[in-house]
Hints:
The complex is a heterodimer of chains A (115) and B (151). Chain A is of the alpha/beta class.
Amino acid sequence: MQIKYIADVTNAEILAFKQGIDHEVVTAFGSDLMSDVLAYVEEDTLLITGLINQQVIRTAEMLDLKAILFVRGKTPCNEVIALAEEKQILLMMTRESLFTVSGILFQHGLRGIKI
Amino acid sequence: MNTYEKDEKNVALKLHYDVANDDFSRAGEASSKIKKMLKQLAIDANIVRRVAIATYEAEINLVIHSNGGNIEVFIKSDRIEIYVEDCGPGIENVDLAMTQGFSTATNVAREMGFGAGMGLPNMEKMSDVFIIESELGSGTNIKMIVKYENV
């Protein structure tokens, strides 16, 4: 599913690396636990999280993830946004909850990773 | 084979990074540099990914738990060896620490998204060989080998 489409249906605002909007993700994973993200995510996955610190960007970097969707209106600080720009990771933010966003994306055909 | 020992033979390239305790703002920098270097060397993407996850988990562990330590990466023709050493405090029960879900991480670590008790098991999962030795009051040494596939 294209990032542009994901941003559209979840009513998300792009915060960093707008250039990545045409990228397509295969699956999605929702978690505030970065250890679990590192343990389970393998494919080109959209990370959905309410955690907004630098380690989220680092985690995405290690896994070659191209996009992160922050939920519950959480907005990272400028330092975190700058790191994402540097690592070419698209950041977007929606006011919806993780559950609601997951439901919307599932309804539009995006599926979770296999555990 | 099952004891921690640095194998200095046939090392094509050696990387060394010091990791300070409690420096969450810089956690991940060493792993980021290691990953960048491996990519530049045109090492297979899956191998790079496994090494990146293993070193990142190790780096986070050093920041959360250790009194400071270092990560060394030996790049060889058929494998990558990762050595993680710290100067304490050591792990009381290594078997327990290796159990998924067991954690002694601080609240600060948990707020950063860690402390789920997945770090060591995850490092083991990413490596073909995983050796951990720890002595209470002295420190912890970890050796991980990631072999290139089909070589």
